[in-house]
Specification:
By secondary structure, the protein is α/β, with parallel strands linked by helices. Helices cover 33% and strands 24% of the residues. It folds into two domains: 118 residues, Rossmann fold (3-Layer(aba) Sandwich), CATH 3.40.50; 239 residues, Dihydrodipicolinate Reductase, domain 2. Helix 5 links the parallel strand 5 and strand 6. Helix 4 packs parallel to helix 5. It binds nicotinamide-adenine-dinucleotide. Nicotinamide-adenine-dinucleotide binds next to helix 1.
Amino acid sequence: MNNIKTAIIGAGFMGPAHTEALRRIGINVAGILGVDEAESNKAAASLGIPKAYKSWEAVLKDTDIQVVHITTPNKLHYRMAKEALNAGKHVLCEKPLAMNSKESGELVELAKKSGLAAGVNYNMRFYPLCVEAKNMVAAGQLGDIYSIVGSYVQDWLLFPTDYNWRVLAEEGGATRAIADIGTHWLDMVQNITGLKVVAVCADLKIVHPIRKRPKGEVETFSGKVQQIQATEDVKITTEDCGTVLLRFNNGAKGNLWVSQITAGRKNCLRFEISGSKKALYWNSETPNEIWVGAREKANDLLLKDPGLLSEAGRSVASYPGGHNEGYPDSFKQCFKKFYTYIATGDFNAPKPFATFEDGHHEILLCEAIHKSHLEGKWVEVIQG
Ligand SMILES: NC(=O)c1ccc[n+]([C@@H]2O[C@H](COP(=O)([O-])OP(=O)(O)OC[C@H]3O[C@@H](n4cnc5c(N)ncnc54)[C@H](O)[C@@H]3O)[C@@H](O)[C@H]2O)c1
């Protein structure tokens, strides 16, 4: 695994996060590409990466590189993933996989034909207690699943002066809060339960139909600290918040609340899964504990401790009990699964990470949610 060489595409929030996580599992980050030469050079220097690429074409031609991580804005994912696979490189793409299901469907087919590893970075799956939750559901400890509810809530786009490329449909896609954070939640609960969302009824809201765009670029989450002088008004068509009723393929009911405008909630994903025997509740802001609800005995609060986890949970917990693991660790664990899969070389084996099929399903979900909101009615989700 340690002889695999990787290139990182994008040098904003995610580029350095991927670099850091890869190095923690011994992967050689050999090169980085930013939006232009200056950004490539700056990122390579600050992260100590040997090669600063001059262009995307230079990455594709670099025969040293076996894996490409795509951490650019959403509108570039499709083209970059397609060209990287065609150039014979394994691809780990940030979510959402593409801008629409036509693009993501094509990528699924291309990935299948390529015989290469193709993953989407739904990293939140890899918190140890989320893997443990999946294991508990699979072992029947919750019984039949009756309902799945929760939320993903942030505050970084609360004010009309908060701006990032994501707020524009042409950069991020037709839905925003749903695609940007809602798909993490949808991926999480479907991965844990093994169920699929089959129908949705959505009600979304644009709180700020006009936002103030700074003249010049703004990095993700930097709006809270960056002093912005000149701005221009820009029309917004993507939602800031919303709720979605969900039906799952086993008949379970659910709901999801997403918001990027809830003061004080920094990055808070919560789920509660109720079954015929037990229930589970988890919150990403306190990721090292999971509540296990019972009816006939006292409830439990399981703290992350490899000694108390199943083999599955233990496989993504690197530190002893009491030593917290968090957001950056979820990238490390996700990449460990992805690169072990590549190193093993058996591409017919089950894939222990979110695949392009999973990424495509998330986009079909986004489209169904958007359609439901626009038409004010339940919409069935196309199962890709
Ligand atoms: N998995 C997660 O938890 C998570 C968290 C945040 C963002 N994301 C995803 O990661 C992606 C990037 O988001 P971000 O927050 O890092 O954005 P960002 O704006 O902070 O960074 C994007 C980077 O891409 C660069 N870029 C733009 N066009 C480029 C091009 N043509 N070639 C090379 N580089 C280019 C930009 O200069 C910038 O460095 C998005 O798809 C987003 O949805 C995932």
